[in-house]
Specification:
Layout: H1 12-22, H2 28-39, H3 41-46, H4 49-56, H5 60-69, H6 75-88, H7 95-110, H8 118-136, H9 139-150, E1 155-159, H10 164-176, E2 181-183, H11 191-195, E3 203-207, H12 214-225, E4 229-234, E5 247-250, E6 255-256, E7 259-260, H13 263-278
Parallel strand pairs: 1-2, 1-3, 3-4, 4-5
Antiparallel strand pairs: 6-7
Helix pairs in contact: 2-5, 8-13, 9-13, 10-13
Length: 286
């Protein structure tokens, strides 16, 4: 009998909850495996265990230990969950997607003239990110976030590096809605001084993705300690910002050769901003 026969039939969401609950107790190497499979769900579903182990520079037995740490018999059971999700949630996916990414890498290295155009690969990746967003974000989550923002005394927006455009866009939109929004941009090294303004009754909207900037997590912790609400946009349940958040959204899990799209996050930011100004009115497409 398996360690937990029910786990083999878990949905991806149920698996993610199990992983999030066990993540802190995993060894450094097993955490590395966990981050890989969450960042690369397509490859996890389609690659062999040996191929994944090679990419991670670990022994195949490490994948088995990872699975057993989550009460699965073997890594193949975890892969079945990812394959099932691929079919049920994202029917547009196929092995061809993963193959095209590999062809892109190989074609660039070998100078093949028939390598897929890089624009096509990123168009497909961004399309997949938007499809993911549709399945991950619920109307209730959006409503909760919008109501939290509306009831806040002040709204602080934070995003560093590639997440900065998200915070900047939200700041622009909210200021145009005459909301008390403040962009924590840290210009001149003044981030710590800007954070001192955050207090009880305020809300911090933060976007952060791997490698999760330490200063961003630090600001979120300070804001929470001061009694502010935290709304986060990040990529997975094991993100360090999730534990600090009152409301969180999981977006933009898709990467291409290490480049992460922010298409889903920007779409979410747009929905939040426009939702703040709708006052319950229905939005129609022109």
């Amino acid at each position: 009998m398996g360690k937990n026969e029910g786990r083999a039939t878990y949905s991806l969401d149920e698996f993610n909850l199990v992983l999030a609950g066990r993540f802190d107790s995993l060894s450094k190497q097993l955490k590395k495996i966990a981050r890989f499979i969450l960042d690369n769900p397509i490859d996890t579903a389609l690659d062999t265990a040996a191929e994944i182990a090679t990419r991670l520079e670990v022994q195949p037995s490490s994948l088995i230990r990872f699975a057993q740490a989550l009460d699965f018999e073997g890594f193949s059971e975890i892969q079945k969950i990812f394959r099932a999700n691929l079919v049920q949630q994202l029917p547009g996916y196929s092995a061809n997607y993963s193959d095209r990414i590999r062809e892109l890498k190989e074609g660039a290295a070998e100078g093949k003239s028939d390598a897929p155009p890089i624009l096509d690969v990123f168009l497909e990746a961004n399309s997949d990110a938007l499809t993911n967003l549709k399945t991950e974000v619920t109307a209730k989550q959006l409503e909760t976030a919008i109501n939290t923002i509306k009831s806040a005394n002040n709204i602080y927006l934070l995003g560093q590096r590639r997440s900065y455009p998200v915070a900047s866009f939200l700041y622009y939109m909210m200021r145009n809605l005459d909301l008390r929004a403040f962009l924590l941009d840290g210009v001149g090294g003044n981030l710590a001084e800007q954070v001192r303004l955050i207090g009880e009754g305020d809300v911090l909207l933060v976007a952060t993705f791997p490698n999760y900037a330490d200063e961003v997590i630090g600001v979120a912790q300070q804001a929470r300690d001061k009694g502010a609400k935290i709304i986060a946009m990040t990529d997975k349940l094991v993100s360090p910002i999730v534990k600090l958040s009152d409301t969180y959204f999981l977006t933009d899990k898709v990467t291409v050769s290490g480049f992460r799209t922010i298409t889903g996050t920007m779409c979410l930011a747009q929905a939040l901003a426009i939702g703040l100004g709708m006052d319950g009115n229905q939005l129609t497409r022109d």
